[in-house]
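Please fill in the sequence for the structure shown.

STRUCTURE ENCODING:
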């Protein structure tokens, strides 16, 4: 029987660009006032020519936009990028090989073999440290981001991608609703969760799974009446077809601030090990919520598995060596914690080059403006031959803050519209849509829905600069078919790259 259900519609509002006055930020308004004062002074002194020239320069600088960002907003980006280039801080070299290794012993005096030197992290990641906490006889990775009392802790869960496109419409909508319920639990009062993030990454599939299956089934197949030519044909297809294939890796990161659950943290000890234990407990609880929503969680990553996820994002060509090592046994799987980070990286204006790859990260600037169904991201997630990572980071907003922000936004829109009408500006469709979105937010909050602040990023990787350009063009076009508009993070590529690592970064 065919599925005749009508898919539910999901609507995203326009990117809200509010300001202090007429859409201008406080900095822009201040700059405009200073520019106006300078122009008046020049006119009073009779310098009409310089005043006109000043106006021609000041107006575009204060109100102009480039690539959707105010021109004044580019000044700090360009400044930081220039500082990194001039000081050499945009060029990272770990020099771990020159540090050598050391031999060590455990407390009983037994030799534990050579010890790797401590990792040297790129700029902006210096406060990260990959830790481990014991859970049911296994070690779970916890990433500490920050130092001292400002530190937050991240646990990485691995999900099991399923055949989403093969599910019927009713099941897809049921899972979407379950995902919303799971997110709503994070916005409750007293929750230590500051952010959650999902990352869907395409990685080369060398066909190990098919090869393992064939190795196990070969005896039965040869003993059966199945012709040898059929077996040889399948093996040949696997050998020739595995190289261009892509596997999908689904990761979910849960980031907590232990200070938000102070009593529970103190009961566990109130120190860093207690914060790690709290992070694992909270992630485990949320994994159970996801399971009820139909999301299959394989489990939390171990330190070596988490290190492999990070390292292989920087160095995709190391994947083959990691797979070979894992074949020798589970204890060899993954990457040593000290080797999680890149050994070399160069931060460019439009790309980020690391060990064996070139990367470009783009921000999802516009989400679908028309109603879409649950399958709308399929164009980007399911049909990508390129190596890329799509990530969304979400921050639960407490109810009282969400209500206050919606009320302030509605007042700001009404005030701004009144000023525009007085000055003779016509209302635009975009501003009407923005105002309608605020009203919808208020209604949803009044109905008890939780609000999430979110942002999305896409990182594209290739083995060469030329390949990166081709892959980026292809991904941007595919995203457009999914009604997404991607904007490159010019001058911030190294920082933006970390937003697609499962670290819960990407929201200020």
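FILLED IN BY: designer on duty
SEQUENCE:
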């Amino acid at each position: 029987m065919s599925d005749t259900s009508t898919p539910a519609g999901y609507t995203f509002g326009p990117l809200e660009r509010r300001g202090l006055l007429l859409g201008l930020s406080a900095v822009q308004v201040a700059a405009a006032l200073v520019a106006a004062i300078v122009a008046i002074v020049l006119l009073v002194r009779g310098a009409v020519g310089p005043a006109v020239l000043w106006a021609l320069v000041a107006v575009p600088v204060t109100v102009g936009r480039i690539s959707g960002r105010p021109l004044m907003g580019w000044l700090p980006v360009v400044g930081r990028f220039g500082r990194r280039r001039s000081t050499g801080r945009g060029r990272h070299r770990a020099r771990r090989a020159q540090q050598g290794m050391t031999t060590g012993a455990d407390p009983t005096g037994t030799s534990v073999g050579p010890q790797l030197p401590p990792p040297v992290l790129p700029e902006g990641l210096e406060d990260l440290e990959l830790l481990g906490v014991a859970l049911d006889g296994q070690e779970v990775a916890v990433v500490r981001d920050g130092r001292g009392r400002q530190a937050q802790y991240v646990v990485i869960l691995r999900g099991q991608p399923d055949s989403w496109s093969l599910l019927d419409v009713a099941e897809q909508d049921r899972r979407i609703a379950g995902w919303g319920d799971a997110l709503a639990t994070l916005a409750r009062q007293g929750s230590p969760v500051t952010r959650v993030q999902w990352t869907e990454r395409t990685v080369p599939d060398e066909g190990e799974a098919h090869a393992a299956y064939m190795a196990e089934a070969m005896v039965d197949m040869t003993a059966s009446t199945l012709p040898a030519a059929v077996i040889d044909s399948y093996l040949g297809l696997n050998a020739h077809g595995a190289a261009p294939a892509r596997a999908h890796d689904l990761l979910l990161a849960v980031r907590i601030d232990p200070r938000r659950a102070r009593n529970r943290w103190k009961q566990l000890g109130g120190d860093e090990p207690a914060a790690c234990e709290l992070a694992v407990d909270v992630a485990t609880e949320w994994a159970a919520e996801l399971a009820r929503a139909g999301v299959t969680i394989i489990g939390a990553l171990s330190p070596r598995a988490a290190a492999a996820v990070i390292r292989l994002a920087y160095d995709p060509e190391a994947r083959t060596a990691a797979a070979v090592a894992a074949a020798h046994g589970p204890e060899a799987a993954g990457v040593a914690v000290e080797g999680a980070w890149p050994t070399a990286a160069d931060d460019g204006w439009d790309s980020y080059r690391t060990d064996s790859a070139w990367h470009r990260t783009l921000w999802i600037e516009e989400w679908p403006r028309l109603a879409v169904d649950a399958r709308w991201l399929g164009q980007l997630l399911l049909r990508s031959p390129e190596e890329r990572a799509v990530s969304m980071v979400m921050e639960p907003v407490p109810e009282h803050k969400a209500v206050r922000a919606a009320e302030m936004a509605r007042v700001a829109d009404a005030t701004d519209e009144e000023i525009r009408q007085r000055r003779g500006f016509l209302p635009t469709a975009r501003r009407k849509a923005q105002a309608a979105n605020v009203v919808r937010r208020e209604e949803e909050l009044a109905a008890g829905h939780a609000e999430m602040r979110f942002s999305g990023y896409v990182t594209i990787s290739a083995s060469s600069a030329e390949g990166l350009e081709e892959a980026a063009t292809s991904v941007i076009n595919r995203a457009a078919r999914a009604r997404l508009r991607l904007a490159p993070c010019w001058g911030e590529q190294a920082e933006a790259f970390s937003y697609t690592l499962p670290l819960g970064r990407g929201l200020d």
